[in-house]
Design brief:
Blueprint lengths: L3 E4 L1 E2 L5 H9 L2 E8 L3 E8 H7 L5 E4 L4 E11 L6 E8 L6 E10 L3 H4 L3 E4 L3 E6 L7 E5 L8 E3 H5 L5 E2 L6 E6 L26
Parallel strand pairs: 1-5, 3-7, 8-11
Antiparallel strand pairs: 2-4, 3-4, 5-6, 6-7, 8-10, 9-14, 10-13, 12-14
Length: 202
């Protein structure tokens, strides 16, 4: 994985007023922490943070030093999506790390060409790898799936050089028959179910 560089500023421990002023200037407060460095309060431009939010390995550049790190958490405003706070964790490039990685399905299943329907399963999977080798996503080739077949984490493991931490029985994709071919018990009947916002009449 290519390491992304992110320049941040160190900051004093903030008050509610100073954090509010920081955000008005387009900055996101955060913290960089690790076994060797303790906890360092930082601030980063929101526009810069958004550019690297999908990366698993960063080089955090402070005025006094730089550190390899990963993003452990980003807090977002539930109303407008603004980034509110970020946690960076320093990593040792010689020690394996754990991360959840997106799964991208590739290929057109044979079963879909025969009239089946491709149903995605879990969209991410847990991996263990060295920080510099951790991928931003993994690809699951579903080309050979026939109707009734599933693609599991165990199938993905055969194609990956990294250790999968998730349950190997986790289904990442399956090809199901068209609705007309399903048995009655396989079809979910929603006609008699009340709408989510319906209030029962007493």
């Amino acid at each position: 994985m290519t390491k992304r560089i992110l320049t941040v500023n160190s900051r004093p421990l903030s008050t509610k007023h100073s954090v509010k002023a920081m955000r008005k200037e387009g900055m996101v407060p955060g913290v960089l922490y690790g076994k060797k460095i303790g906890s360092i309060p930082v601030a980063v431009l929101e526009k810069d943070l958004r550019k690297v939010s999908g990366a698993h390995l960063l080089e955090i550049v402070l005025p006094q030093a730089s550190y390899p790190a990963v993003i452990r958490e980003i807090q977002k405003d539930s109303l407008n999506g603004a980034l509110r706070h970020v946690d960076f964790q320093q990593v040792d490039l010689t020690e394996k790390m754990k991360a959840d990685v997106a799964v991208h399905l590739t290929g057109t299943p044979l079963g879909e060409k025969a009239g089946g329907i491709l149903q995605p399963g879990e969209r991410s999977i847990g991996l263990e790898a060295l920080p510099a080798e951790m991928p931003g996503f993994v690809e699951a080739d579903v080309t050979n799936l026939e109707i009734g077949d599933s693609f599991t984490a165990a199938d993905l493991q055969k194609a990956l050089p990294y250790k999968i931490l998730s349950d190997l029985q986790t289904v990442l994709a399956r090809v199901v028959p068209p609705a007309a071919d399903l048995q009655p018990e396989e079809i979910i009947n929603t006609e008699d179910k009340p709408e989510e916002n319906d209030v029962p009449v007493k």
